[in-house]
Every structure is written in structure tokens, then in C-alpha cells.
Amino acid sequence: MTYLIDLFLKPGAVLASELANPVPDRHYSAEFRHFTFDHELNGVIDAQGEDDEGGGGRSGPSRKRPRPGPGERQGSGGRVPEAGPG
User: How many CA atoms lie within 13 A of 17 on its CB side?
Assistant: First the structure.
């Protein structure tokens, strides 16, 4: 996940610098022409499987958040109301 954040998402991302000064003979997808590279990232990743330390699969701060209630979904910034029909 750190790779994705560092390369594509955060302000000052590696690809943003590279697009400003392209590497010769490297292809850059047209989808990145209007990509902003200024995303605010403040979520928690809850993964299943093994990690390098063998301590489980949770990455990020160890804090428990309440489960979403009826009609809500969990988003990276907390509880988010579900979109209604329409």
C-alpha cells in the first residue's frame, strides 16, 4: 500500500514529478494527464493474511471503530450514509 501512496496518491508523488520531467522511452498512460496527485489519505487498512512481523494483518493505527449502523457504510473518513434509490 505504501508503494501506491508514494507513487500515485500523495502530494509530491513520484509519478507527478516524473510526468513533469518524463523518462525517455517510458510510456505514460493518458489517464494520468489530468490526475491530481493531491489526495488526502487518512484511513486504516484491515487486511487478512500474514505480515512481515507475523503479528496479524492490521496495518495502520490500532484503534477500533464502531461498526456502521443500519443504512450506513464504513468509509475511510468514518461513517457515511448509504445513498438512497434514485
Answer: 7
